[in-house]
Amino acid sequence: MRNARHPERSEGSQPRGRRILRCFVAALLSMTGGAIAENVIAIRDATILTVTNGKIEHGTVLIRGSKIAAVGPNASVAVPAGAQVIDAAGKFVLPGIIDTHSHTGVDGSVNEISLPNTGMVRIADVLTNEDVSAYRQLAGGTTTALVLHGSANPIGGQSQIVKWKWGHPVSEWPVAGAPRTIKFALGENPKSSNFRPPPGTPLQYPQTRMGVEEVIRKSFTDARDYMARWDEYEARRKRGETPLPPRRDLLMETMADILRGNIDVHSHCYRADEIMMLINLANEMGFKVREFQHVLEGYKVAREIAAHGAGGGTFIDWWGYKLEAYDAIPYNVALMERAGVVTSVNSDSDELARHLNQDAAKAMKYGGLTEDEALKLCTINPARQLRLDHRIGSIDVGKDADLAIWTGHPLSTYSRVESTFVEGEMVFDRQRDLQLRKDLAKEKADRLKKEADDEAKKKKDAAKKPEEKKDE
Amino acid sequence: MSRRSVCLVVLLLIAAPLCADAPGVYAITGGTVHPVSGAAIDKGVVVIRDGLIEAVGANLPIPPDATIIDAKGGHVYPGLIDAQTSLGFAAAAPRRRGFGGGGGGAAQPATPPPPETSPAFQAIREAKLSDDDVEAKRATGVTTILTVPASGIFNGQSAVLNLAEGSMESRVIRAGVTQQVSFSPRAAWTYPDSLMGVISYVKQSLLDAQQNAAALAIYTKNPAGNKRPDQSAAADALAAVLRRDVPVVFIADTELMMRRAMAIAKEFNLRYMLSGARQAYRMVNDLQSIPVLVSVKWPTAPASKEDKEEQPLRVIRDRQLAPTSPAALAKSGANFALVSGAAKTAEFIPGVRKAIENGLSADDALRATTLSPARILGIDRQLGTLEKGKIANVVVSDKPIFEEKAKVTRVFVDGRETKLPSEEEKAKRAEGATPAASPLDGTWSLSVKSAQGDVNITATLHVEDGRVTGTFSGDRGSGDIKSGSFDGTTVEFTISAKTDAESADWVFHGTVSGTAMSGSVSTNLGTFQFSGSKGQ
Q1: What are the strands, taking DSSP E only, across B287-360?
Q2: Distance from C-alpha of A441 to C-alpha of A450, rounded to nearest angstrom
Q3: What per-residue confidence (pLDDT) applies to B430?
Q4: What angle do CA A421, A425, A429 make, to 5 degrees?
Q5: What is the mean pLDDT of chain B?
Q6: Which phi and psi (to 5°) does residue A388 adopt?
Q7: Do B282 and A242 touch (CB under 8 A)?
Q8: Would B167 be classed as within a structural domain?
Q9: Range of the domain at B510
Q10: Is residue B224 within 8 angstroms of chain A, CB to CB?
Q11: How many domains does chain B have?
Q12: What are the chain A neighbours of B312 within 8 Å (beta carbons)?
């Protein structure tokens, strides 16, 4: 709760804003029994949807520092003296929702569109903590996202796994120790089917699905050559020779790191044939596709995706917005999940990222997933796709205290989020938000008024001038 | 002596101080002298001889050979130093798509194209300072500038020049003072066309220079059996940066951009400074060990009340707090200078005044435009104060120089009195400085004939120096105009349009005729026609 801030608060280290906030926090703390050195929060008497260990009615989650310290029925969890207690009777606790397809929080274009392979560029270099969408996603219970490069080229830039640590410096947003990731893209977007450069600009290679495959294959064969050059250089140095150092190429370093298993591939795709193409190419080149993104025809090749060990992150009911999205069915999620693909629903949208719980719920209607299976679609499954399921995605002792308190069951459209925690810190709270909206509206009005007053005064002074001259 | 020759002698005597070839001997007397190196001296004297300052003080003997400059009631300062300008270079062109910058050859902008820059670009060889530029700049009290183009990513090696009358060679204080980097993406489809691409490009360029330097060092020792490395002027220029011989100036206005620049500098162990620094007020504690050149190009409010109210609080707040950056830096003891940056010549002193209105003391403002920039640029043994032995750049004004109605009355550069523009010339320039509103300025209702039906978008556009800025809203979400250009007839701008599943850049290309605009828009779903009109 220490640093929780409202959208407009995130950017300034404004003394006045801070002071108000501090008073506010101090008041809250005094209401809850005084300041304590360590962050200890007990969420009492809630229905806890652990995701990995079923549902606990009348349960308590104990947060200590940034981690979940205990979880269980009320009677089994002792609340330490001095802990901040939140009475959540009648409410639900869900792990923070994880969105593996986000473009939120990026300064400038999400596409480096200029080359067929732009694996040297990094989303991490251009993250911004001033995108209000991150805060709005917290209001929908979403706490973690894979922020991806766009899909304009077969190999896009390196993506970044972040938590929406609203109010914190952007340097704290990337999840420390999380796998590095890169965006691949297949199909219409990378062959620029739907986007033509203006007249006068040459068409960008590739223009066909064949070309997309060739770009990816050549990038990896180039990377092998690159790695061999460096190996030879190191070997010659070991022999006591003085060879010239090869060029350190940021693009080739990226490709080499994919081959070394240091960077996970998340690939945008739609059609079954291109999914098979990438699986075959990955097997040939010796890398893994960690997650197929969008993957609207995943149901046609679900067994093959599962055999490769890739996940599938998809939309539940978006289709037909371009030719390659025509064969989509809402049963895709259920069919992939039942075929053994680790499946998630994700957003690709600032708006949808605020209610991924609802898209998860639709998989119960389309394909008959159980409640537990539906909840996994936006929690532990995306955590597994990101290889972060040891840290996030469920309410288990030792995991990061990323969770939200809901007014009702999160799979109901009538439920909404009351408070959201990231690593034990309350980063969104509905009541506080309502108050801050008023404060910020007032600040805006005050600032505009001051500006108008200053302007009027200047005009008045300017009008006076000629008279002064006359007096002289 | 005939009467005619007497006249001639008199004329010569009058004209001598103004157009003598050799710097003369002057004693500026009667004014309040602000040496910056020490306290102000009431009725002080500054003696100039042969281009240098000979003496500064109260009650000094006036050398018998000195021409006396009466500054009674006025104020005497060291010439101001503007440590960030692009004087003598064409403005950076708005981002253009495609190659050759033509786009069909019609309606070419009248202004010359900006120079092709690179790390090897040397401002000293390419700057074309017009007399008008120099005179206008001097009229504001600035006698020394740093100049380098604002175009490109590696803008090149800057030059520090005295604004003297005479050859370029004679003006040079130092060349190759800094290497400047701007985070400006290139036109779409040319690497790098995104901010993240620019950052990768800068890093790769530095890596290549590292590799080149290492390879050359090994090759020089062991040429036999090794392939000869390329000779690269760009790599050589960056090698000087990597050796910390030449500091890098990163152009960065926002806190996030400054921090990105700082991360690059840290990764490559660069000596560097930040320029722009509009949001320094948010991070003064982290700017204690870095020279900061704060541009006085302050953000401005939109003209209409409705547009003001449309803006988010964060924009309004930033606009009001940005001019408090200099005061915050001064209070914290940071090493900073006030510079033009993107501001025009005529905006410099008013910009400094705005910093004073927002809490900076006049003394600190003077220091930030004299001694501090001299120190930051490493020229403080020659310039920045009125002290014996320094270069005689001296400015006299009728009132304290940053006051609203102050007028610079005399300017000495390298010990020579220089010409100031006449009142008519000033008026003429002022006219030119505030161009009539562009026909693009205003709120446009645009309708795109897309395959899915009409898409209505309202765009509020503003043009400055050919660049289009503004906001949009409507059927495809809302946001800022991402980039754009306008040459008087043809307009191009990009928005980030949100559809169901994907957000994509929509690039509008149109022609403007009166209050009508029409053309085509390239989208992720195809190219469509659009048309629209400007509201009142």
Answers
A1: 292-295, 336-339
A2: 14
A3: 62
A4: 55
A5: 88
A6: -125, 20
A7: no
A8: no
A9: 442-534
A10: no
A11: 2
A12: 8
Q: Where are the beta strands (DSSP E) in B128-258?
A: 142-147, 154-162, 172-182, 248-252
Nearest C-alpha in B relative to A192: B524
Residue A466 banded pLDDT, cuts 50, 70, 90:
low
Q: Mark yes or no for CB contact B196/A112 under 8 Å.
A: yes
How many other CB atoms are found less than 10 A from the CB of residue A23?
10
B194 at interface of A, judged by CB pairs closer than 8 A = yes
Class of domain A97-392: alpha beta
Burial class (CB in 10 A: 0-12, 13-18, 19+), B32: middle
Contact A321 B499 (CB under 8 A): yes
CA distances from A416 to A139, A140, A411 (A): 8, 7, 10
Whether B57 maps to a domain, the answer reads yes
Rounded (5°) CA angle B339-B345-B349: 60
Give the model's pLDDT for residue A63: 98
User: In the prediction, which pLDDT does B102 show?
Assistant: 34
CA distance A244 to B147: 37
Pairing type for strands B75-78 and B394-397 reads: antiparallel
B514 CA: distance to closest CA in chain A (Å): 24
Distance CA B305, CA A350 (A): 29
Nearest of B369, B363, B295 to residue B145 by alpha carbon: B369
- The secondary structure of A97-116 as a DSSP string is EEEEEE--SBSS-S---SSS
Give me the residues paired with residue A205 across strands.
none
Residue with tokens 């070991």: A238
Angle, CA B120 vertex, CA B118 and CA B125 arms, to 5°: 105
Extract the tokens encoding A359. Answer: 């898209």
* Alpha-helical runs (H) found in A139-238: 209-238
Answer yes or no: is B506 within a domain.
yes
Question: Residue B61 class from Cβ within 10 Å (0-12 exposed, 13-18 middle, 19+ buried)?
Answer: exposed
| Of A210-214, A240-244, A392-396, minimum mean pLDDT range | A240-244
How close B211 comes to chain A (CA, Å)? 6
CA angle B82, B87, B89 (to 5 degrees): 150
CA-nearest residue of chain A to B104? A200
- Tell which residue, A303, A292, A314, has the closest CA to residue A340: A303
CATH code linked to domain A1-96+394-472: 2.30.40.10
Residue of chain A with shortest Cα separation from B254: A11
Q: Are strands B442-450 and B52-58 parallel, antiparallel or unpaired?
A: unpaired
- DSSP string across B266-307: HHTT--EEEEE-GGGGG-GGGGTTS-EEEE-------SSHHH
**Token pair of B428, please?**
């003429």
Q: Do the domain assignments include residue B59?
A: yes
Query: Closest residue of B to A253, CA-based?
Result: B204
The model's pLDDT over B235-270, given as tens digits with 9 standing for 90+, comes to 999 999 999 999 999 999 999 999 999 999 999 999
Contact B317 A250 (CB under 8 A): no
Domain ranges of chain A: 1-96+394-472, 97-392
Task: Yes or no: say if B148 and B123 are a contact pair by the CB < 8 Å rule.
Answer: yes
- B191 neighbourhood in chain A, CB within 8 Å: 112, 114-115, 118
- DSSP secondary structure letter of residue A117: B
Residues B524 and B473 in one domain: yes
One domain, residues B530 and B446: yes
Q: A194–B97: do the CB atoms touch at under 8 Å? A: no
- Interface residue B259 vs chain A (CB under 8 A): yes
**Distances from the Cα of A358 to the Cα of A102, A462, B91, B209, angstroms:** 17, 60, 51, 52
Burial label, A457 (beta-carbon count in 10 A; 0-12, 13-18, 19+): exposed
Tokens of A368: 């008959």
B101: closest chain A residue by CA: A200
Contact A344, A313 (CB under 8 A): yes
